[in-house]
From TrEMBL:
<dbReference type="InterPro" id="IPR036950">
    <property type="entry name" value="PBP_transglycosylase"/>
</dbReference>
<keyword id="KW-1133">Transmembrane helix</keyword>
<keyword id="KW-0133">Cell shape</keyword>
<keyword id="KW-1003">Cell membrane</keyword>
<comment type="function">
    <text>Peptidoglycan polymerase that catalyzes glycan chain elongation from lipid-linked precursors.</text>
</comment>
<keyword id="KW-0472">Membrane</keyword>
<keyword id="KW-0961">Cell wall biogenesis/degradation</keyword>
<dbReference type="Pfam" id="PF00912">
    <property type="entry name" value="Transgly"/>
</dbReference>
<dbReference type="InterPro" id="IPR001264">
    <property type="entry name" value="Glyco_trans_51"/>
</dbReference>
<comment type="similarity">
    <text>Belongs to the glycosyltransferase 51 family.</text>
</comment>
<keyword id="KW-0573">Peptidoglycan synthesis</keyword>
<feature type="domain" description="Glycosyl transferase family 51">
    <location>
        <begin position="58"/>
        <end position="222"/>
    </location>
</feature>
<dbReference type="InterPro" id="IPR011812">
    <property type="entry name" value="Pep_trsgly"/>
</dbReference>
<keyword id="KW-0812">Transmembrane</keyword>
<keyword id="KW-0808">Transferase</keyword>
<protein>
    <recommendedName>
        <fullName>Biosynthetic peptidoglycan transglycosylase</fullName>
        <ecNumber>2.4.99.28</ecNumber>
    </recommendedName>
</protein>
<dbReference type="InterPro" id="IPR023346">
    <property type="entry name" value="Lysozyme-like_dom_sf"/>
</dbReference>
Amino acid sequence: MRNWGRRVARFLGLALLGWVGLSVLLVLMLRVVPLGGSMVMFERKVEAWRAGESLDIRQEWRPWDALSPQAKLAVIAAEDQRFPVHHGFDLVELRRAVTASLNGGDLRGASTLSQQTAKNLFLWTDRSWVRKGLEAWFTLLIEMLWPKERILEVYLNIAEWDDGVFGLEAASRHYFGVSASQLSVVQASRLAAILPNPRGWSASRPGDHVLRRSAWIRRQMHNLGGPAYLDRL
C-alpha cells in the first residue's frame, strides 16, 4: 500500500513538473509569435455551436507600432493605471475593492491588464476558483517572461469588442471604418469605455453611460500625461 501511494505521489509530482515546464515554454514561445486566436475566441465559437448558431471570428494581428498610442493609453487609463509599475496584481485596487465590499458595497473587480491578458489568452471566462488560480499562475509567468509592451500588445490584439470582434484592428474597422493606427482620441476612449461589457455596449452608437465613461477616460489620459506615459513601459 505504501509503495502504491509513493508511486501515485511520484506520478503526480512528475505530472505537475511537466505541466509547469510546458506552460513556461508556451509563454516563452508566445513572447515573439503573432497570435491569431485565444481561448476566449474558442469559447465563443463553442457557445455559438451549442446554440445552433454561426459565429465568424474577426481578428487581425497588428504589431506594437501599428497600434494607436491613443488606444494604448486609453486602455491603461480605463482598466489599469498602475500597469507600468505593478508586477501583475494591483494590491492597491484590490485593497480598495475589499474595503468597499466590507463597507456594504458591491465587490468590484480589481483585475489588471496582465490578469486579463492571461485569462483571455489561456483560459475561459467563468469565475471559478480553479480559473482564478490558473489565471494567477499565467499572470506571474507573463509578467516574468514578457516586457510590459508585449503584454499590452497581446491584450490589444485579443480583447473582445463585440460578438465575434476581437483585437483592436477588427474593432477599429467594425465601429469606425479605420485601421488601428488611425484611431482618434475620442474613438480610442469609446473603445476602451465598452471593454467591461463589449457585447452589450457600442462604441459607434454609445449610450449615455458609455459617453460619460469615455469622457472620464479622456480626462484620465490627460492626467496621466498623454501618450508620453507609454514611455514608462
